Amino acid sequence: MARSRSVLLVALVLAVAPCCFVGLRAQCSRAPSLRTRSVRVLQRAERVEREDGTALGAAGIGASLVMAWSEWTLKTTGCGLPAGPFGLLGATEGLSYLAVVGLVVYQLFRLATNDTKKQSSLVEVASFLALLVALAGLVVLYFQIQDYGFVPEAVPTEGGRCSNIG
User: Where is the signal peptide (predicted)?
Assistant: First the structure.
């Protein structure tokens, strides 16, 4: 929100700034009116905001899918995803959990503050998917404790229960 306001303010200043110079007065008389310039600036700022929402939505959907895969692996094997080459798969899994929790907290904050601002449709899909995956995670946690009697450690230790997976 603060970023989009600052982008809007900078864009508006840049749209008006050429008319402030004395040498450009003749050029300003032929230039489009301030109203049309500010409308174009607002349209550009909205386009940038939509593009940011698209990236956030795509990242959220990807994180939700990785977390769902991790939960499926946890339910079927009793351990999470293996570390993978150079630990990249495990790192992706951990970052996905953080991203999904962040999306769920963001959605809960929006609900608590009655924020009615329109979101990008991808962000809405990502938030809904994150909520579903988080709820599924609670169900998997219950079954993990019932079936296996333990919750695997976040970082597998040498010789631990989940150290031979992979």
Answer: 1-26
What pLDDT, on the 0 to 100 scale, is given for residue 68? 95
- Spatial distance between the Cα atoms of 129 and 124, rounded to a whole number of angstroms: 9
- Please name which of 114, 74, 110 lies closest in space to residue 93, comparing C-alpha atoms: 74
For residue 30 the two structure tokens come to: 């032929």
Range of the domain at 94: 2-148
**DSSP codes joined into one string, 153-166:** -SSPPTTSTTTT--
Counting the structural domains of the chain, the total is 1
Neighbours of 165 (CB within 10 A): 15
What are residue 155's phi and psi, to 5 degrees? Answer: -115, 110
Answer for the pair 126, 103: CB distance below 8 angstroms, yes or no: yes
41 φ/ψ sector (left φ>0, alpha ψ -120 to 50, else beta): alpha
In 3D space, the residue among 134, 160, 148 whose CA is nearest the CA of residue 75 turns out to be 148
Domain assignment present for residue 100? The answer is yes
Q: What is the pLDDT of residue 99?
A: 94
Strands (E), the chain: none
Overall pTM surpassing 0.70 (yes/no):
no
